[in-house]
Amino acid sequence: MKPGEIRTLTIDRSKEFGVYLTDEQGDSVLLPKKEVPSGAKIGDKVEVFLYKDSSDRLIATVKRPLLLLHQVGLLKVTQTGKIGAFLDWGLPKELLLPFHEQTRRVKPSEEVLVAPYVDKTGRLAATMNVYPYLEQDAPYQKDAKVKARIYETSDNFGLFAAVDDRYSALIPKQEAQGSWRIGDVVEARVTSVRPDGKLNLSVREKAYLQMEKDADGILKVIGEYEGVLPFDDRVSPEIIQREFGLSKNAFKRAVGHLMKEGKVEIRDRRIYLL
């Protein structure tokens, strides 16, 4: 018998403090008295969840935790301590989220996306590194609109996200314009479904739709510069990202669109509002 398992076991013997349940191999585990179903007797079968109590002993409960082993979902932080944070997962003993399993520091009362796992000591704990536990058979096709929770950021790849807090997805760097943090929920568009079942997403609309939004944002920023942007579309990508949250290509497309509409012009390495 191992922590995290759901087992159907047989009541073998009764004590003042509860009953002992046994499996086919004769291994036994305690089900505390307050957990014993009313009217249960020796020989009856009981479905239980196994975990370790505060004394590190394997114990059974008829309660179901909010998340089962390797299942991904949201749990609320009840408190933080010297070794990590503690999560309410519906059992008397709270679930530990160690510091080394946190992708960012969490605070009491917030909900975090985690998955229970068994650590090296055989105890159940939680991790925010949920990538191995996300499903890859999302029921979405190209251009579907979805909601995704960011659980990891990468300077090289972009944003790793969980669609519906369940399915594995990536928002590639070039499609992740803007400022995002771990835990943010974004509305995104499915750009492709990979052969392995994972989703590629974009927080941007299709190019012809997004260009109008980008152009409006550029006009707003030029207005904040009193009608004269102190650089043109040859400026560095870093400055464009800082000022507009856009890639250089998206910026050039939107500026070109504004010029065709007669709303701006470029002279002397500056962009002027007309």
Tags for this entry?
OB fold (Dihydrolipoamide Acetyltransferase, E2P); five-stranded antiparallel β-sheet; 4 domains; 14% helix
Structural overview:
This protein is mostly beta strands. It has four domains: 6-61, Nucleic acid-binding proteins (OB fold (Dihydrolipoamide Acetyltransferase, E2P), Beta Barrel); 73-130, Nucleic acid-binding proteins (OB fold (Dihydrolipoamide Acetyltransferase, E2P), Beta Barrel), CATH 2.40.50; 134-202, Nucleic acid-binding proteins (OB fold (Dihydrolipoamide Acetyltransferase, E2P)); 207-273, Winged helix-like DNA-binding domain superfamily/Winged helix DNA-binding domain (Arc Repressor Mutant, subunit A), CATH 1.10.10.10. Helices cover 14% and strands 39% of the residues. The protein has three helices and 18 strands. The chain has a five-stranded antiparallel β-sheet with strand order 3-2-1-4-5, with no helix packed on it. A five-stranded antiparallel β-sheet has the order 8-7-6-9-10, with no helix packed on it. It is elongated and about 90 Å long. The N and C termini lie far apart (75 Å). The mean pLDDT is 89.
Cα(first) to Cα(last) distance is 75 Å
Strand content: 35-45%
CATH architecture of the largest domain, by name, is: Beta Barrel
What's the order of the H and E elements?
EEEEEEEEEEEEEEEHEHHEE
- Flag low-confidence runs: none
Helix content: 10-25%
In total, the number of domains comes to 4
- Describe the largest sheet: 5 strands, antiparallel
What is the CATH superfamily of the largest domain?
Nucleic acid-binding proteins
CATH topology of the largest domain: OB fold (Dihydrolipoamide Acetyltransferase, E2P)
CATH class type of the largest domain: Mainly Beta
Count of helical regions: 3
The counted number of beta strands is: 18
| Structural class by SSE content | mainly beta
Strand order of the largest sheet: 3-2-1-4-5
- Globally, the shape reads elongated
Mean pLDDT: 89
Radius of gyration, in Å, reads 27 Å
